[in-house]
Amino acid sequence: MPTSHPKPPSSHASNTQSGLAGLLVAVDPPATHLGAGGTSFADGALRWSARALAGVALAGLLGCGQSKGAANIEALPVPEPDLPEVPKLPAAPHPITYPDGSFSLYGLHRQMDRHIGKPVAVTAFIAGHYVPPECKGKDCEKAAKPHLWLADTAGEADSNKRLTVVGYSEYNDEARRRGLGALPEGQRVRVQGTFTQVSASGFNASNGLIEYESHESITTR
User: Fold this and answer.
1) d(CA 193, CA 202)
2) What is the pLDDT of residue 67?
3) Residue at 15 is within a domain
4) Is residue 199 over pLDDT 70?
């Protein structure tokens, strides 16, 4: 039967133990005798303290020489972000331009700075006509020149969503019969003219107006 031999200590452990043996010897000074076989109280306390410190050092060194297993670290759960839903922007109420290249009022006002003072074409509904006062005399309000309002929606009453058109006729029967002013409210039209804030006839509007050049009626199917 084969004889088993004890495993020799590792060089690290051997070196550690040898060093500690030397440490114990170094910290255990010879006793100072008081006469025959007596030891001073101070020398005894010193030797006891030195041995205690050496024991602490021995435990620390032996602990450092031992191999450590893998640390058992508990994985923390991955936090899930709690973000609000992305807000849904409302769709534009009207297209910027129509297939023929003409603007909606919404589109023209969105790009007002690019087109002010330039010729434009607008497709919209006639939303209302200016009606001059019927009274006569010096106390009557002076009638303004003919003008009407366009809007993207038929019957629009909000003045902020309307666009004034001026310069299309004078007050005479011929102009009333064949001009833009003869068309009824709710009629869809395409009007061409200059987009401006102040007209040659004295009208002004901060959100712009059309100084009329031509128009055509659009049949709604």
Assistant:
1) 16
2) 52
3) yes
4) yes
Beta carbons within 10 angstroms of residue 24's beta carbon: 15
Inform me whether the pLDDT recorded for 47 exceeds 70: no
Query: CB neighbours (10 Å) of residue 115?
Result: 17
Domain tally for the chain?
2
Regarding pTM above 0.85, the answer is no
In this predicted structure, the answer to whether residue 202 has a pLDDT above a threshold of 60 is yes
Domain annotation covers residue 111: yes
Residues 114 and 55 in one domain: no
Distance CA 87, CA 154 (A): 30
Same domain for 109 and 203: yes
Per-residue CA distances from 172 to 20, 175, 214 (Å): 125, 6, 18
Structure tokens at 114: 């690019």
Residue 59 confidence class, pLDDT cut points 50, 70, 90? low
47: domain range?
11-65
**Which H or E run includes 204?**
strand 204-218
Q: Mapping DSSP to helix (H, G, I), strand (E, B) and coil, where does residue 189 land? A: strand
Q: Is residue 74 part of a domain?
A: no
Q: Cα torsion at 100, 118, 107, 183 (round to 10°)?
A: -70
DSSP structure string for 67-115 = PPPPP-PPPPPPPPP-PPPPPPPPPPSS-SB-TTSPBPHHHHHHTHHHH
- Tell me how far apart the alpha carbons of residues 197 and 152 are, in angstroms, rounded to a whole number: 19
| Residue 6 belongs to some domain of the structure | no
pLDDT at 36: 47
